[in-house]
Amino acid sequence: MATPDEVLTNARGLHEKGHYQEAVKLYSEVIQVWDVDEAQELLHSEYRQFHLARAYNDRGLCLYMLVEFDEAIKDLTQAIKLDPKLAAAHYTRGTIHYRLCSSQAMEDGGRLVIIRKALDDLHEAVNLEPENQDFQQGLNDCKKELVRLMDGVESKILELDGLNVGQLALLMYLLDSGDPSVGSDNSQRRRNTLGARQGCHAFLSILSRRDWGARYLSALLELRAQELLHRMSLQLPENSEALQRQVQLCGEELLVLVEACHHLNITHRHLDTSIAIVQKMLRLTDSEKRGSFFLYAENLLLSRMCDNLTPLQVYKLYCAALISPEFCRIVDGGFKVTENNVKDEEGLKEVLFFYLIRVLEFNSLLNRIYTDNLKSLLEDVMATYKEEDKEKEEEKQTLIKAMTVLQSYPNECRPSGLCVIFCVTEDRAGAKYEMDKIKSVFQDRLGYTVVTEKNPSNDTLEWYVKELQNTKYNFYDSFVFWFVSHGSEDTVTLADKKSYSRDTFIHKFSLPDNFRKKPKIFFMATCRGNKTIKVMPLGGVNVAADGHPKPWPGDVPLPYQDISSVYYQMDRVIANATLPEKFSFRTDDKGSIFVDTVCCLLEERGGQNLTVVLEEAFRRIHRVLFISNEGEFEGSAKQACFYESTLQKTFLIPDYT
């Protein structure tokens, strides 16, 4: 009896002679033995998995030659699952989609979806084997077909005529986060990965074929808009799970596209009905419908950096990546671009810069928190300037500013963050002032969306934990939670007098995937016990108590670094009104001393480092003498605030004005 290897050899012999039906039968025999569902143990052998992927690929190719496209696509998809780097499978599947797309019998919406699949596969094939001329020709044919299709669309969604290739590149760059490790669910994370890869391919295509770059980019962008309109126009039952899922998958992408067009003064058509549906289902507030909310802050920050850099500096940045041992393996140096090209060809600076950014992101070397690799390249550019070049001082300052900006969390969008106030009012004089003060400062001065929950219960907290998983919270740059109540060392007091663990509260409101790589700030304005910090009985301000008791290596090589996984407790500040076991104090008219002092300083110090401002607030509070107006404690006392921080960058207080 023939072994699977011998059957494979016979199948390939028949395949090469054009006997496709017979070859399919033999490939099927091998696949039945080695199938991933029936013989998982065999896949522990790299040899078997390698050849099983190629068996699926070869059978798929035979089915393609027999014009059995659906079955061929299934086999090629399975081959890619087994071996994502199997370029031939990507190429054949892309070719099938390209041929299907050319069929005039298909509806426009279907053609657009299929040509997108064809482009993605053919780009990936070329990416895996850049020297393969057949792959390159297939990709070029597919690009021409896309431009032809978009030229033939009578009802355009985006008004892109007159934009240069740099403006088109900026629009495409703004549409995706490029960070495959963030998002509220796996589908969004996959879309981020795909967005970064598509950006790499698109910008590289323009750099390689600049003669028709603007037409191709316009076609890609219009394709994206047409796809969205096609998906959003599908008729699904109202209030159904399918409709909610559609809005989750497409709605965010739609709002990003619309906001990017608004940001760049680009007109869009035919989207108003879909926008209204998405806004209603996502329960957007008025402030979330305005401003630049549905844009990724890191994209806005880096696009502004690109604006400030000169064409020569961007070209030097590209050259620095090409000669760097860490980056030269991922940056393509095969296209012809010179210093003069970048200076003289309008828009080429932007295309080159965004190509570099997407390449770094796609290879997990750059995201909103970990910008060290980009900073390193900027430092290499800085090193090309001589100290005595006084006439280049402005250019040097531009680089210094760019490197400085990378040291802080991105904070570009409006509303700038979400602030939720949990405040218990019973038996707490001045509680209304506390809520009004926090809301006034964070909403009017710092530009946050503010939600106030008066007298929260356990159900209130659990509702918020679930609510914050929703997709719209992906776009907030920071999250602030106030808990203003009585408390003990380990608990805070809810409205029904029940206790809730402080650690559980902080833990649950740090967990949502939407919050990863973003600052999370907790202001815990409660007592931690019933002890005072006694000082000499010198008198002081009348107050009431708020509650009752209860070896590192300097240089780590790149292979040992990871910027994709961030622990949920990172990027967090917990500001406590007092030390464990101690009282915190409040006045009858203004409530918590901690709330009032911190809010007053935040109101004054927009644009400054949060932790520095907290230190000043704590210093102000601790220098005040307090005496009890109700005899709750003896003598004079002080209040000692403190904070815990796992911030990885500087958090600058938003300056909304």
Automatic annotation (TrEMBL):
<dbReference type="InterPro" id="IPR029030">
    <property type="entry name" value="Caspase-like_dom_sf"/>
</dbReference>
<dbReference type="GO" id="GO:0006508">
    <property type="term" value="P:proteolysis"/>
</dbReference>
<dbReference type="Pfam" id="PF00656">
    <property type="entry name" value="Peptidase_C14"/>
</dbReference>
<feature type="domain" description="Caspase family p10">
    <location>
        <begin position="569"/>
        <end position="606"/>
    </location>
</feature>
<keyword id="KW-0378">Hydrolase</keyword>
<keyword id="KW-0053">Apoptosis</keyword>
<feature type="domain" description="Caspase family p20">
    <location>
        <begin position="422"/>
        <end position="531"/>
    </location>
</feature>
<dbReference type="Pfam" id="PF00515">
    <property type="entry name" value="TPR_1"/>
</dbReference>
<keyword id="KW-0802">TPR repeat</keyword>
<dbReference type="InterPro" id="IPR002138">
    <property type="entry name" value="Pept_C14_p10"/>
</dbReference>
<dbReference type="InterPro" id="IPR002398">
    <property type="entry name" value="Pept_C14"/>
</dbReference>
<keyword id="KW-0175">Coiled coil</keyword>
<dbReference type="InterPro" id="IPR019734">
    <property type="entry name" value="TPR_rpt"/>
</dbReference>
<dbReference type="InterPro" id="IPR001309">
    <property type="entry name" value="Pept_C14_p20"/>
</dbReference>
<dbReference type="GO" id="GO:0004197">
    <property type="term" value="F:cysteine-type endopeptidase activity"/>
</dbReference>
<feature type="repeat" description="TPR">
    <location>
        <begin position="53"/>
        <end position="86"/>
    </location>
</feature>
<dbReference type="GO" id="GO:0006915">
    <property type="term" value="P:apoptotic process"/>
</dbReference>
<comment type="similarity">
    <text>Belongs to the peptidase C14A family.</text>
</comment>
<dbReference type="InterPro" id="IPR011600">
    <property type="entry name" value="Pept_C14_caspase"/>
</dbReference>
<dbReference type="InterPro" id="IPR015917">
    <property type="entry name" value="Pept_C14A"/>
</dbReference>
<protein>
    <recommendedName>
        <fullName>Caspase-8</fullName>
    </recommendedName>
</protein>
<keyword id="KW-0645">Protease</keyword>
<feature type="coiled-coil region">
    <location>
        <begin position="375"/>
        <end position="402"/>
    </location>
</feature>
<dbReference type="InterPro" id="IPR011990">
    <property type="entry name" value="TPR-like_helical_dom_sf"/>
</dbReference>
